[in-house]
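Whiteboard transcription, Tuesday session. T.W. wrote the structure tokens on the left side:
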């Protein structure tokens, strides 16, 4: 006697059913892949939005710091601090002293 497949399950061995099962498995796998890729895109989009927001905040902070730096280095502010806090005043010609060094002192 030959080993014959069970009478009720003989349709499982046909190529048509195999192709249908393969298509259904492929469909499920591709659906899962689409959901996963959409999730990854959303995560990446959120990270990009946060990075752009942080970049904007850093640029604003850089601009504020640059303004503060320019203010601290302004000539009028430095002169005002020198006069008021340090008691300094501009040099007048009667206070100038010029020192002349002999030429030998300039040689290395």
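and on the right, the sequence the group agreed on:
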């Amino acid at each position: 006697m030959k080993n014959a497949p069970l009478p009720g399950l003989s349709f499982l061995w046909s190529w048509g059913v195999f192709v249908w099962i393969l298509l259904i498995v492929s469909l499920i796998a591709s659906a899962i892949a689409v959901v996963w890729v959409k999730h990854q895109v959303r995560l990446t989009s959120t990270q990009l939005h946060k990075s752009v927001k942080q970049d904007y905040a850093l640029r604003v902070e850089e601009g504020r710091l640059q303004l503060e730096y320019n203010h601290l280095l302004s000539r009028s502010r430095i002169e005002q601090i020198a006069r008021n806090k340090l008691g300094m005043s501009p040099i007048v010609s009667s206070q100038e002293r010029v020192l002349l060094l002999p030429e030998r002192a300039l040689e290395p």
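Someone added at the bottom: The first helix runs from residue 15 to 72.
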